[in-house]
Design a protein that fits this description.
Layout: H1 2-16, H2 27-34, H3 36-39, H4 46-53, H5 69-78, H6 93-105
Helix pairs in contact: 2-6, 5-6
């Protein structure tokens, strides 16, 4: 009986093992999944619109050169204004680092106002 339980447990645990051949998303993919909805350039992206209202020269995250990694980590973990915090189970520190590398290396967008001109 004990052998049956041990074998059953071994089978269950081996089924739960993740596939090592599956690639994890890189910084660009994680940015697209977790950040772009609010922080991409243009109208309809609330994070960009708030930064534009605050008078930032580059309102979207892409193309900014004034971000520091530690600041980005703190904002991602704690949240800010409308942005919710992300737990380490949602974005690991390594994934935040990859997103930061993507933000810093991506070409700045063509600047178009996020807020409609009145």
């Amino acid at each position: 009986m004990k052998k049956l339980i041990a074998i059953s447990l071994l089978v269950i645990l081996s089924a739960c093992n993740s596939d090592p051949t599956v690639e994890k998303p890189d910084g660009a993919e994680n940015y697209a999944l977790m950040c772009a909805g609010c922080h991409d350039p243009g109208p309809g992206h609330p994070g960009t619109m708030l930064l534009e209202q605050a008078g930032r020269p580059v309102a979207s995250l892409i193309g900014r050169d004034d971000l520091e990694l530690e600041y980005l980590r703190a904002i991602v973990r704690q949240g800010l204004i409308e942005m919710p915090p992300f737990r380490p189970t949602e974005l690991s520190d390594a994934e935040i680092d990859d997103i930061y590398a993507h933000i810093m290396s991506a070409e700045p967008p063509v600047t178009t106002p996020a807020m409609p001109v009145k």
